[in-house]
Amino acid sequence: MGGSAPLRRALIALSMLLIGAEGLRQIAQGDGCSQPGMQCTIKNNSCLDFNWFRRYSWTPTAPSNMVVTTGIGQNELGRTVVRLHINWTVSVDASILELQGVEITVVERSTQVTRCIQYQFNNTFPSQRNPNGQPWQFYYNNFEVIPGHTYIVTVQHLPRQGGDNSKVQEFTVPWCDEGDMIQTDTCCDLGFCWFPNITIKHQEENLIVEFSSRWNAKEYGVQVKVRDSPDNTFIHVILQEGPPIQRVQVTFPHIGGHIDKECVYNISQLRF
Ligand SMILES: *[C@@H]1O[C@H](CO)[C@@H](O)[C@H](O)[C@H]1NC(C)=O
Ligand SMILES: *[C@@H]1O[C@H](CO)[C@@H](O)[C@H](O)[C@H]1NC(C)=O
Ligand SMILES: *[C@@H]1O[C@H](CO)[C@@H](O)[C@H](O)[C@H]1NC(C)=O
Ligand SMILES: *[C@@H]1O[C@H](CO)[C@@H](O)[C@H](O)[C@H]1NC(C)=O
Ligand SMILES: *[C@@H]1O[C@H](CO)[C@@H](O)[C@H](O)[C@H]1NC(C)=O
């Protein structure tokens, strides 16, 4: 053996196909919507409640203010997820006497999946301000959402007034690389806590690529491209049942040589 062969660089791309996270859903938990002085009941899944399409002579005005943010919390299954926090304020005016309920609708823009709940007030508002002298404020934070997705949130006071007594806001949930999002199980489902720890070995003319699988993914693609060479090989791996996380070994024949790696990994979703 003479001097060492020149080092060649290879680009190793690893991809994973994931089922992805569930879309917009309502978390089945919560503490009702009553406040001192107001008895309120939550009615679930009631986007099409024809009672409210009747004509009423008197209708409440729109909420005076609405704030949509997100928070990280647990859903009823104990998973750490992203929730929409929807807060709104009732206008301080005499039309509060007509306010019988509120419909909160969220539409996921890319899929048009819609979820809706209603607050129904069992008594009329005793005064234009709450017992603390503040405008009445309500909130709902049981919609579970997906990072990076855009939602259209509508808070509609009931009875309706030709669509004029609602407030609408579009809100985009921060992506998994922002703030604390990475701590959610949802971002893990989207591949953000996969550390494949790629290693390579040479065995005669073969190049052996090893990586750690992810607990909920069974399909991977491994691609090796040697710099300055037109060769580009791709191997599709489908794991059989085994331990939740394992080292997976893929052999690329006849690539050999002294290859130094540069790794890229790429996560793809099959569907949301
Ligand atoms: C609506 O759902 C919440 C939690 O999702 C639950 O606590 C409540 O009992 C449900 N109400 C009705 C009327 O089904
Ligand atoms: C929304 O209302 C809740 C309950 O009153 C409050 O804790 C929270 O700080 C409010 N959020 C915003 C952004 O105003
Ligand atoms: C409040 O009103 C809702 C809807 O009108 C009704 O289903 C519920 O039984 C009422 N609750 C009480 C405590 O009266
Ligand atoms: C990566 O994998 C190699 C080979 O299995 C192992 O020796 C190393 O400790 C792993 N590194 C990390 C950070 O897990
Ligand atoms: C990531 O992998 C998927 C599936 O193997 C492929 O379709 C996509 O083009 C890759 N993206 C990049 C940026 O390499």
From TrEMBL:
Keywords: Cell membrane, Membrane, Signal. It holds the Pfam family IL17R_fnIII_D1. Its main location: membrane. Residues 1-23 form the signal peptide. InterPro entries: IL-17_rcpt-like, IL17R_A/B_N, IL17RA/B_FnIII-like_1_sf. Gene3D superfamilies: Interleukin-17 receptor A/B, fibronectin-III-like domain 1. Residues 38-188 form the IL17RA/B N-terminal domain. It is found in: Cell membrane. It is a single-pass type I membrane protein. PANTHER family: INTERLEUKIN-17 RECEPTOR (PTHR15583), INTERLEUKIN-17 RECEPTOR A (PTHR15583:SF13). This is IL17RA/B N-terminal domain-containing protein. It comes from Staurois parvus.
